[in-house]
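Q: Hand in one record:
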Amino acid sequence: MTKDELIKQIESEWANLQAALEGLTEEQMHQPGVVGEWTIKDVLAHITAWQTRLITTLFKAEKGITPETTAGGKTVDQMNERFHQELKDRPFDQVWDDLDSSHYQLLNRLESWKEKDLFDPKRFKWMQGKPFVEYIAGDSYEHYEEHAAQIRAWRKTMTNDQ
């Protein structure tokens, strides 16, 4: 994979996520049960939280600062719960705007990165022998793909119930 291919993959899965949301009403965005009890709005806020955290990680790595790869030793589930509690009461328009702007911030930040910094498994000690691109994938295109599939599955249950 090259940097251009990484960016294309991010954009492709972003389009896939957008397609999974296409045609939903705002009322449907607030219905629980998409992922556990989460609504689509909750899922979008969750994606934004991880995407924003990734942008901060990119910034710190660029500056030679070791980012927190886990927040104070918390597990991913604990962080997901913390993000959910922090973001669940945000208005939908704010969640949508934050999702969109953080996605474009991510793409803009990636533009300045060098291939070797993204793909060299020895580049960042804190990545423990893995290339930084794996971290990026997990909080961008793989994350979009995971939640787009969950949204599509939820939509099928909604269709079957009617």
About this structure: The longest helix spans residues 40-62. The two ends are 43 Å apart (CA to CA). The chain is about 70% helix and 0% strand. The mean pLDDT is 91.
